[in-house]
Amino acid sequence: MPESKAPLNVTARRATAADVDDLIPLYCGFMEHEGDIPPPPAELRRRLERLLGCETDDVLIACSEDGTPLGYLQQRYFLSVWRADHDAFIEDVFVVEAARGRRVGERLLELAFALARERGVHRICLDTNENNHRGRALYERTGFKNLMPQWDNGREIFYSKYF
Fold it and tell me: Do the beta carbons of residue 89 and residue 108 sit within 8 Å?
């Protein structure tokens, strides 16, 4: 288990078009962390601008006191015939390595929960790799439950949180 670090004083908020330059390296960082090659910055900018204008998604950004971007969260809202309530799906949670273990992800999730409640969401879901021990600890600490202990031969874990 990684050593415990002091929490950072972090501000998390909904990202706007003015945040695209700060989001590009964060999204690239997550793609590289996952072993993917990010698209060229101009293409990623185009995608982010489109995403930030989409009513079905929220992109949240966490910044330090001096404004340094530390992480992001992308959340999608949807309806399903399987449930009467609105749902949300957390697509991405990423925190830069230097800020991991310092409650940045927790701040992003707290804001995601608040925004979801404002939209009438009663369930938030996400999936993660079973080897993402740090992420899984964060999700469980913030109230997510693993309702499907084995999915895709145990490689992916599906979590839900109900309000």
Answer: no
pLDDT band at 75 (very low <50, low <70, confident <90, very high): very high
Which CATH superfamily includes the segment(s) 10-162? Gcn5-related N-acetyltransferase (GNAT) (3.40.630.30)
3-state secondary structure of 139: helix
Query: Has residue 27 got a pLDDT over 80?
Result: yes
Give the number of other Cβ atoms within 10 Å of residue 77's Cβ: 19
- Its pTM stands at 0.89
CB neighbours of 54 closer than 8 A, spacing ≥ 6? none
Burial class (CB in 10 A: 0-12, 13-18, 19+), 147: exposed
Predicted local distance difference test score (pLDDT) of residue 108 = 98
pLDDT at 160: 83
Which is nearest to 120 in space by CA: 60, 75, 78? Answer: 78
CA-nearest of 89, 80, 96, 143 to 116 is: 89
Q: How many residues does the chain have?
A: 163
